[in-house]
User: What shape does this take?
Amino acid sequence: DQGGVCAAMNKIIDTLPRAIKNAYVISSAGCTDAADNLHFNADGYKEFGKRYAIKMLSLLGYSTADIKTGND
Assistant: This one.
């Protein structure tokens, strides 16, 4: 959603779970980017990391209902 340098790859990345049964796509929507318009900035990496952690913990059977995310 930031129009980053590699944003066109999102359509391809979104197809991975169809090809690899245990693949998950973690959304980067709203994660802020760095000046190069390619990488996240520090806050973007933190938010993406939280989303990744929540997904991985949920896959391992942990409750993630009490975990605070970006806009909390």
About this structure: The chain has a mean pLDDT of 89. The two ends are 21 Å apart (CA to CA).
